Amino acid sequence: MLKLIIINRLRSILKNKKQFISSVLVLSIGLGVFVGMGSTLVIFNETIDSYHYDSNYADAFASVVAMPRSNVERLDRIDGVSESLGVLEHSVDARIEGFDDIVSVRLVGVDADYSRTINMYRYTGAPLESINDIWLGRVFFDTHNLSVGDTIHLLVNGRYEAFTIRGEVISPEFMFVTPDGGTFADDYLSTVGFVQTPVVERAANMYGFVNSVSIILDEGSSFTDVRLFLEDALSHFGLLSILCRSDHPNYIFVASQSSSVVVLATVIPFIFLSVACAMMYIAFKRLVEVERVEIGTLKAIGLSDRIIVTGYIFQGWIAATIGFTLSLGLGWIIGSSYYEMLMDVFTIDSLPYTLDLQTSISGLLAALFVCLLSVVMGARVAIKVKPAEAMRSAYQTASARDVKLDGFFFRLLLETDGKYAIRSMFRNKRRTLMTVFSIALTFALINFLFALNQHITEITEKRYNTIEVSDATLFLERPGYRNTILNEMFRIPGVIDAEVGLAFPVELEFDGVIRDVTIYSLDEDARLFNIIDIWGNRHHPDGGIILNYYYADSLGVSEGQIVTLYNRQASRTKQVMVSQVVEESFGIGAYMSLSEFSLLFGAYEISNMVLINVDENYFDDIQNELLEAANVVWINDNSRAVESLREAGQATEIILNILIVVSIIICFAIVYNTSIISLEEKQCEYATLRVLGYRVSEVSSINTFEYSVKLIVGSIIGTIIAFFISPPLSSLFNSETSRFWAEITMDSTMLAFVSCTLSVAISCILIRGQIKKFNLASVMKERE
Amino acid sequence: MKEILAVNNLCKEYKMGEVIVPVLRNLSFSIYEGEFVVILGQSGSGKTTLMNMIGGVDRPTEGEIIYRNRNIASVSERELTVYRRDAIGFVFQFYNLIQNLTVKENIEVASKLSKNPIDLGILLERTGMSTHESYFPSQLSGGQQQRVAIARAIVKNPSLLLCDEPTGALDSYNGIQVFSLLKDFNRTFEKTIVIITHNTAIAEIADRIFYLRDGMFEKIENNNNPMQPEDVVW
Fold first, then answer.
1. How far is CA A682 from CA A389, A394, A676, A679, B101, in A?
2. ipTM, 2 decimals?
3. Any CB–CB contact under 8 A between A397 and chain B?
């Protein structure tokens, strides 16, 4: 008997294939995003972990002024330290053929025997045989389409020297290289260059010294355990900063990418699955209603409730299995594409993309849960059906409680067709609610995704349009006095405006918690650098310190409390009040007024950073002139920087656009599915109208009106939902380097409305086609 | 009397898999303005198919259906819709009222299609539904529903009213009510009415009776003394 029931269920699927396909499609899209992005998250973390493990990525990093190479090994004697490595690093300007801009290369010394057990690098190409051989960072190498054998000219001791590029190199601590003083990695303008140690010694004029120390800790030891001992040991060599791995800029960047994948792998699929659940419920409930007579007949001939419900459960299982199988393919496409995009950014040897077994099993369980829940809720009706009642007409009946719609307002607004459409919605309140809820949810999601996409573009633009509004920022090797620097700047032809600042790493301490922070100090009325929070409010440096939310949170400090600044280089401390805590979009920011911060250096208004606005016709000349100046370390060309930021955000932008398209498809599937159900219910009535002389367009306009009302109500509710979900959802994308506050705007709402309208319009066009295909004679006969 | 509809050599076949089933075989007849015609036949004789052909709901396999000098068997779907809209009123066995519309709205649905509709108030009065105009179909008896359906069919002011077993789902009392109403409209508004039924008793109220059997007319009878519905023995 069960076999017959199962055959019957399979035929039912074939009979209702459009509803079945659209329900399964929504389910598979939701699961596909979940499985695909979930697997991406797993494989991405595995790739990074495996890379960090293989390359023995250090547990702690310290930067010192100069430490004799022979002293580095002594660090191993500190309790908790397993191994240490000292490297000499020094940034130089460089030129490559066919590229006009000057680039910054951080030279890293490599020992003759290439022996490194910490932060182990990997190169592709030839070994560094000559003193003038260099390996360049992989991203930079690829971005500039360089080849082994090409030449790069490095500015060493005031003159350009030719170096032969022998290959490309990756190293865990240099996956992203920010130019000295810069905030963001720039693949065009900055890279790392591995050369033989004597080259760096000559460039830095530091023979036999190192300035960068990496530490591997003993198993079971933590950074907190050894920090004080390390600080004590390194303080003799001019300790500039000391960081644990999790505070290392490269690690932070990786973690921020990982956290954005988490949102894409959890929250968004959850919304899709909720919609799928609503849709499956509608479909199955309707199916039971349609098959009411059949269920009654089966009961009348003696079949038990259990066997009937088992049949429906089998149908749910089929939906779950097909939905899950499709989701594996879809997940593979979405996940592997995103993984590929991520790996393009990271350029490390990636593990091959596979769907994660645990995530896939979770997906299968989710599919079964969604389908079986829907089926059980729908099939509850089957259990309640009494044979005698079921075999009577299953027609839905109106009652005196039906909405009358005969008030003045309705008479004015609605024709008879309109009333028909509105009452149809009230007749199936639960289905209408589910449909409106699903439209609202997808509308809210699309609205949010558009808003987030807009926000990412805006904060990228804003960084260089409203925050760093200078054309370029210069970083000086040695600080100088404010007026001297400004006088020199204004003497250069083409410089329209100039301001100075002081950017310097210090130790920030509050209540025993210590953080290394680079403080940007500016004039109180700075014109070329504005501290602007995520809501667009401007903050001015004052007598205290302005911390962004991330720093304030990690130190556990709030406005009005006192923190201690420690300048390791000058061994000076200063207590200062946290005057403002601000939420910034990008960067890890701490700001003070120039006059206050200079006191930490025992001087008044010194600066090592110059912001300039220039006549664009002079820009190249000014850049070249300044880069050749002995004291200038690096010039940040802001127009180039904004391009770099845009490129960095492209992977996120692409995946957000994919999710928008997916949401539109889901919205369409919901509307189409419920329209099909509605059409089946009303086909006799529609056919009657056709027989009475209604045109296809007039009949289909009833369905269009019904869904237009649902769309408008769904959009209004969706807009409200979007306002509520946007802050918490966008905050899930927050990382240590960036904070998001995607605001729902008129633009994002309009785009969401257009997207949902498009879905509804396509569905209505398809339904119109169905009405047109009605065989009036046979539809009328079905009524009998 | 003036001819309103002429059917010439009408054939209809249905394809059921490999088998072709002839339903109507070479039918030819005319219907005249103001006539009250009953097409009588057993189940499966082709009555509903014939009415679908005349009503422009379905198309014949062969033959002509000439309505006011126009062969509706060969017009486009769009023109067929205009034909149904302007010329035909339909009454169905199971009323086919729109469940979500009230009595008045169900009639309005049809009235808005017509350029020259009959006054809705008059129809509600004639059908005895004026006190029930805001009721939904499910709140009405079968007879009441059929009266609404007749009002809906007649409100467009069509030339030809086609009724498919209009009393098939009604008891005798309601059946008499319905036929009285149809007769009333036939006389008052001079509408041509074609009724298909399997009930031989009903034939007695017609001006002409077409006996249909296996898709062919067995005979066509003129009834010179049609009875009043209330006099018919059901």
1. 21, 13, 10, 5, 13
2. 0.86
3. yes
